[in-house]
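Figure S4 source data
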Amino acid sequence: MEEKRLAKEYGKEKRVNKFVLVIVTIIDTLLFFGYIGDYMQGNISFGFMLSVDLAVIVSMIACYSVYFHKKDSTAFQHVSVIGYMVVYGLAVFGAQNDLVFMMVFPLTVIYILYYDMKLILRIAVVFGAINVIDVIYIVAVLRHMHSGVPINSTSLLLQGASAVVYMIVLCGTTHISNDNNAKKIASINQEKDKSTALLNEVLNVVASVKQNSTEAAEHIRQLSQYVDATASELSDIAEGNINNAESIEQQTVMTGNIQSMILETKQMSDEMLSMAERSEGAVRDGQHTVDSLQEQAHKTRDANEQVVTSVTGLISNAKAVEQITEQIFSISSQTNLLALNASIESARAGEAGKGFAVVSEEIRALADETRKLTEGIQGIVAELRKNADMAKNTVDNVIMAADAEHGLILDASAKFGEIGSRMQGLHSNVQEMYKKIEEILESNNVIVDSITHISAVSEEVTASTQQAAELGADTSSKAEQARGLMVELLETVKAIDKYL
């Protein structure tokens, strides 16, 4: 049963049945027509010929019926053997030829292909027994050979010995063949188990590779998307940095312009400071002149004879005062203009120029007041000239004019004192404004340095960002190539799916 199971396991039952059917068909066909020929020649009787041919026909019908019902059926081998046993028995016992017993050799040997030891044993016993019985039948019953010749012991011994030896060889060959096949099958099964285990391991590895490849492909796809997004962002940052660099360059130019304007304002402040110092000196001179006039007025009271001379000096001094007031008026106008320019520049400077705006507003107020005072002084000087002319025309009114002049001189002294005080305040404010301008200039220099540093850093960042963008694009290309390779790997692994 084990041999049959192994034979069926390797799919040989169907092929062997077909081969046996062909051989049986050939032998039975030869027997069928051979016995008809012997009958027609008168070698055998009609009854014997009919019995053999009927046995052949029945055997053929049984074999074909079983074979076409199920081509790999195990019953076919038994049906074919039994049919051939019947035909062989009839042929041997009713033969007219002493060599008919050799018909056992060509057919029985093909049953080795079934690897069925029991079947071979049955074949050996039955066909061996037929030949032994035939020998006994010849010796005991017929007392002559089937051909009619006297008994030939050599022929009988050859028939019995060849049949028995053949059956022994048939059994031994089958046994050895089955044993060798069993060992080969066991070896094959062992190798098959190893191959199966190896294949399972390979399939497990392939499944793992497939899963990991799928995950890796997904990660690479996401990485490619992230790299593309990063490269896009880096490109936007690079473009933004370029725009920032352009803005910084524009700010650098504007800051340079502001610095130039601050320097110009500083120069004007220097001039205004110098003018304020000169104005303060002129005011002090005017104060001294007024003091001199006051002394002259006292002297006029003591010496009327010197009135004309004093009036002439007064007129001269009045002219000097007029010139001074004109200078003060001019200075106040320039101061007002500078204060206006300073207000404009402070407005441009924004938060940094608020303090400077207050100072410039105060300076402009002082300039306006100075202008008003100067106009008043001009009026006084005009009055002094008028009085001097009247003094020249009317000496009689010299004393009266001197008294009026004395009062005017006192008033002028007070005015000059007030102008001097305001000029000192103006000088202090101008100095403070000068300091503020220097601070603004220093702060602007710091801003310029910072903008220059920012510009350099922006250029470095732009270059680094561009390099990063190029690297990101290259990384994206590499990731896409890796993704393509992973897709190819997945396609390759999918070919193993049919074994999973």
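Figure S5 source data
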Amino acid sequence: MKNNITLYVMGKAMYQITKDSAKTAAMRKAILSEYRQIMLNAKDIGKKNQLLSAYALAAWFIAMNRVDDLSPDKNFEIMSEGLRNSKMFSIVMGDAEHYLAPKRIEKQKKWAESTHQKIYENDWVVDVVSGNGKFDLGYDYLECGICKLCRDEGCPELAKYLCKLDYLFADIMGLNLKRTTTLAEGGKKCDFRFSRK
């Protein structure tokens, strides 16, 4: 995948957010180097893909697990705590009102429709599910770029950890997330259902 500013910024941000995972400066640099190599080898998903940052997070998590001697559980704990404590990340994520704004949802529907064209092999394929009183907004992910990247990198077992981050992201934005199944754990889809807290 070609380098772009989003991938560069995500690498630098994750370097800071997860710096406690590496025992030495050399190990931190090795994780950053491995992240960059994973992203260079990764199949393209489009430089304007709105899930590019999720793809980059997955690459960083894979790099952490390749370079350090910590378990995936411990690396997930470090990554999720770092993301939760990052003021910059909270600002980028926004809040429930932004996430559930009607204009944004209309854009999401157009985006979801475009994913079914499958222009990029490792892209997500998604359907938007309108709120029905039980939830405000839903997504059914039928294909997942994170699962594909983890598969390509020979570590499909790591994808399930990254699925857990969705609950953290929802919490940061002031949303509740309910999900009954994920592709990473063998389901036919990831059924996200968001509601305001």
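The longest strand covers residues 137-143. Strands lie at 125-130, 137-143, 175-178, 190-196.
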